[in-house]
Amino acid sequence: MITSSKRTPLTFLVHATVLFLVIIWTIPTAGLFISSIRDKNQLSTSGWWTALATSEQRLVARAHEPKKQVQEGDRFVIRGNLFEGAPGVITQFGSSSLRPDEFEVGTVAELKKGETLQVMENGDYAFSSPVEWKGSRGDRIFYTAEIPPRFTLENYREVLNAEGLGKSFINSLTVTIPATIIPILVAAFAAYALAWMRFPGRALLVAAVVGLLVVPLQMSLIPLLKTYNLIGEFFGVGSKTYVGIWLAHTGFGLPLAIYLLRNYIVGLPREIIESARVDGASDFDIFRKIVLPLSFPALASFAIFQFLWVWNDLLIAMVFLGNDAEHMVLTGQLRELLGSRGGNWEILTASAFITIIIPLCVFFGLQRYLVRGLLAGSVK
Amino acid sequence: MGQLASALVTMILGVMGCAAYFYGSNFLLDKLFPTKSGAAAVVARNLRVANNIRPWLFLGPAVLLLTFYLFYPVIDSIRLSFYGRSGEEFVGLANYKWLFGSDEFYESFRNNMLWLIVVPTAATFFGLIIATMTDRIWWGNIAKSLIFMPMAISFVGASVIWKFIYDFRTGGEDQIGLLNALVVFFGGEPQTWLTIPIWNNFFLMVILIWIQTGFAMVILSAALRGIPDETIEAAVLDGANGFQIFYKIMVPQIWGTIAVVWTTITILVLKVFDIVLAMTNAQWGTQVLANQMFSWMFNGGGDFGRGAVIALVIMVLVIPIMVWNIRRANAEMEGR
Questions:
Q1: pTM more than 0.80
Q2: Which of A204, A236, A368, B330 is the most exposed place for a label (fewest CB within 10 A)?
Q3: Do B173 and A224 touch (CB under 8 A)?
């Protein structure tokens, strides 16, 4: 665009600045993703930026129970491996939680009553005692180990099954798909009428649509909640239904939909529509056979908008679909987890990534239409 | 699987029902007032009648939905603001008195004002800077795409992402939150960022700025491309440097777009409640109007009157933008 750009000494600075900003903007999401596939012990003790480095962790494990002991000479010995096959290097160990780093690895630690404990670098340990070990549980061993990076899909498996995210995922789809298609249908017809049909009150309706574009949702919530309760009571079905939330999303999405589509449809070439009219086509035929196919780009733009908006919505889902596990959508579930599992980052990061993966796919796949829609409808 | 199947059936039924209305009603209209055959006078009359009715068949669902979901509720909210908890008994101005006498309201109002000043300004500023710079480099589109990406992320998802960044570990443990890790790296003391009064608001705002900068960038980038090359070439010939071209030639030509971006984000800011709810649950002085309204709506059985009053405050703040929009749209229509 600017022919002088190559000549300015600023070019390097521009590259550097943009790179810097891009890094700032992507790092939060990258951190989330990397964390979600890390082993949960590593995740909770070291930053995700160290994911590829060996991490030093303080861990605790239980030795084998006494019945696995063997007699070696005059001593009773319990042997095993702390890592149980996984890689890692132990640096220090101890037998009490107060002093987990009491002994250097390899040394034979003297414990009470003549018992000894030896832990090797590779995790092999040996408890030894002059008398027979008793009890049903093994003693605890505290150790500091250098664990190589470990990546796993375990976190995803856990949230999808145990935390009910799989169900929420389907709930979200059930809410989102009709709540995207219905407003498109309703708005396309209305937009055509506002663009190409003549009737009294048209200008007023257009102004009303523009005005309603910015009405805060909050204004609608309380009266609608009351009405929904009444309707639910009347039909005896409860106030939280999928139909209810589809229509709510439709109502709230309509102003933008009508505005976007009308702006597009009004710009279609007049000749096409006039000549179809002369040929005796009714408005319904014109709409169906000419306007609808021609408006595909605008329809796609709005569809993406509405999809992202509905999928990402928390407020309307909380008010009109409720918070019970049966109906919870992904955003609601994620918020719930944020409250109840505030410190379990392996659960939170994996859950968050599941909630954002679909919008991200839609975003990168259909970005062109999204941008076009934004440019056309930036009044909202 | 059962759930998936029933979800699919409800989806198809819902969408089909909607399509059936449009087909059915138009079919009926064509049957009742046939225009394809018959005596000329009858056809002409039928055509006129059908043409009078059809716009309302097309508009019917939209008008009904807009009335039911937006227009009527706005009116009813105004009415409810004069009524008590359950919306039954008239209480006059009691809700308004309560509102203007409550500390929480002033807290959320102050925070909302901070949000209103900081977020649109910062997002527009970054958007403009990035739009200008990415237009000059060969990998600009990739950069734009990445900066635009947070737009696709829900506020709750973004809250998790940022809460992870603000995470705090006590004692000598390694910080796993990026911000505290950086602070420690540069020799500072780690902080519980979300509990520091006043400043925690800014840490929440960062999230929305992060999300909205991409939006501003896309719109402003298109506007910048629309600037006629001649104006810039003339400036270059006159010896203007990069900054002068930016501030004196480019920015003035896209003021209109900047205003649109700014107001759009402003409206969004007024409605934001998810971020506050998810990040701090309005503790530590981070309450905002939209979230306060939400809690009055539900907490302790809900107080519809007080909720409605707070909603009304948000509405009043939006009205100037609404008026400006309508006037702009009208001017545009007359220009066509």
A1: yes
A2: A236
A3: no
